[in-house]
TrEMBL record:
Origin species: Hydra vulgaris
Ranges for region Disordered: 201-259, 286-305
Record GO biological process: actin filament organization; cAMP-mediated signaling; cell morphogenesis
GO cellular component: cytoplasm
Residue spans of biased composition, Pro residues class: 225-243
Lineage of source species: Eukaryota, Metazoa, Cnidaria, Hydrozoa, Hydroidolina
Domain C-CAP/cofactor C-like: 324-462
Family: Belongs to the CAP family.
Protein name listed in UniProt: Adenylyl cyclase-associated protein
Length: 486
């Protein structure tokens, strides 16, 4: 309400100043049909968004290129808001076409982060990649503020890392991280004030179409002015009133209605004589009395004849199936962690140079084999299917999680072997590894294969079924495994 009052006061002062300067001459008034919410956004864009882009580019390195991509996303976002300020809500298909440039700009930022995982500014890239999708609030209804807050929380995970690393050593980096979170918070406040139920459209204008993206939109300074008024500053005369229907036209319509009513009453007044005008049906016109009529071929039905009733057919509804997005394969050392992700049919994965401070993480791989030559701290297989791992020693644990039909061969020693939420796990060990601790949970088809002196293996299935009975002696339930080796 305070913003509205201040805007009205500003307009009033401007008109008074123009009137005082004009005297008896003509007054030129500049037309501005931008709604108030778009004026506020332009001010926010100039102060906050543009400043953040400049500070991002100033950090240099990979952020210099990323800042340009962010600037493209902000421009696409502003173009969409400008279309909404001058058009009514489009159809769903047209709205998706209008969103396409913004979606592509955001995807370029996220792709740049994925292609530069080894960058020294990876936390910077990740903060932008996780937070920039807040621009997609334009397609969220009825609570876009909650969506922006979710993007803020995702970005804050990485900005907190930056604050921890650079708060003392490089305040410029820390200030950049803080400014991005403040940007998200302030924009959330703007959306709450002007677009609380979703993007606001101009209901007084025609519906937006994809052609609005390519049409040249006038800038604020180039908007046409209203034609000058008459001398003396007086307002132009009002338009002439709409002419009312003439009495002659009304009388003609009433006269036609009276004629049709009089004809109807004249026919009703005939009584039983109303049927005298009907034509009599003779015997030669009757089918049951005229054999020639029965021998005639049937008359073909016309296309215009009514069709017999048929119940409406029910269309089978099937929900759209989204195709899984194939992500690029990853095989790299990040800090002290080997990342092997999204490998497909690769049986030549090998880690030759490693040490006991490094960990190995294999995620969502399929039909692949990994060979770790050396001692590492731990190895984890997560969401892999039909994969094999061969290693020598681990200091902590080897772990299966959410895997299917996977195998591991331990040539040395592993203190702990963990199998969790896995269907189909085979562990090949040597006698030196018999002292290992094996922990299982929510898994099935688990086998431990122990190497014999002759090189063959003896297979021992791990129990999957448990039996629980009540013990009166201990006054509690006792659970024991079902022996599968009997």
């Amino acid at each position: 309400m305070e913003q509205l009052v201040s805007r009205l006061e500003a307009v009033t002062n401007r008109l008074e100043a123009v009137a005082s300067r004009s005297g008896g001459g003509s007054v030129k008034v500049v037309a501005d049909d931008d709604p108030a919410w778009f004026d506020d956004f332009k001010e926010y864009n100039a102060k906050t968004l543009t400043g953040f882009v400049n500070s991002t580019i100033a950090l240099g390195g990979d952020l210099e290129h990323l800042g340009k991509l962010v600037d493209d996303a902000f421009r696409s976002h502003m173009t969409l808001l400008e279309i909404a300020a001058h058009h009514n809500r489009p159809s769903q298909a047209d709205f998706e076409a209008l969103l396409k440039p913004l979606s592509e700009a955001i995807s370029k930022v996220q792709d740049f982060r994925e292609k530069n995982r080894s960058s020294k500014q990876f936390n910077h890239l990740s903060a932008i990649s996780e937070g920039l999708p807040f621009l997609g609030w334009v397609g969220v209804a009825p609570k876009p503020v909650l969506y922006i807050q979710q993007m803020e929380e995702s970005a804050q995970f990485y900005t907190n890392k930056l604050l921890k690393d650079f708060r003392e050593s490089d305040p410029k980096q820390a200030n950049w991280a803080t400014s991005f979170i403040q940007l998200l918070k302030s924009f959330s406040g703007y959306v709450k004030d002007h677009h609380q139920a979703g993007l606001t459209w101009n209901k007084e204008k025609p519906a937006a179409t994809p052609a609005a993206l390519t049409s040249k939109k006038p800038t604020i300074s180039s908007k046409p002015a209203v034609p000058p008024g008459p001398p003396g500053g007086f307002a132009p005369p009002p338009p002439p009133p709409v002419q009312a229907p003439t009495a002659t036209h009304t009388s003609v319509e009433n006269h036609g209605a009276e004629d049709s009513r009089s004809q109807l009453f004249a026919q009703l007044s005939k009584g039983s004589d109303i049927t005298l005008g009907l034509k009599k049906v003779t015997d030669d016109m009757k089918t049951h009395k005229n054999p020639e009529l029965r021998n005639q071929p049937p008359v073909k039905s016309s296309v215009l004849d009514p069709k017999p009733y048929a119940p409406p057919s029910l269309k089978k509804f099937s929900a759209p199936i989204s195709k899984p997005v194939k992500k690029p394969a990853v095989f790299q050392l990040q800090n002290k962690k080997w990342l092997i992700e999204h490998q497909e049919g690769n049986n030549h994965l090998e880690i030759a140079q490693c040490n006991d401070k490094q960990t190995v993480y294999m995620f969502k791989c399929n039909l692949s084999t990994l060979h770790v030559k050396g001692k590492v701290n731990s190895i984890i297989l997560d969401s892999c299917e039909k994969c094999n791992v061969v290693f020598t020693d681990v200091i902590a644990t080897f772990e299966f999680t959410n895997c299917k039909s996977c195998k591991v061969q331990i040539d040395g020693f592993a203190p702990t072997i963990s199998i969790e939420k896995t269907d189909g796990a085979q562990v090949f060990i040597n006698p030196a590894c018999l002292e290992s601790q094996i922990v299982t949970a929510k898994s099935s088809e688990m086998n431990i294969c122990v190497r014999k002196p002759d090189g063959d293996f003896t297979e021992y299935p791990l129990p999957e079924q448990f039996k629980t009975v009540w013990s009166p002696a201990s006054n509690k339930f006792l659970t024991s495994t079902m022996d599968l080796n009997l």
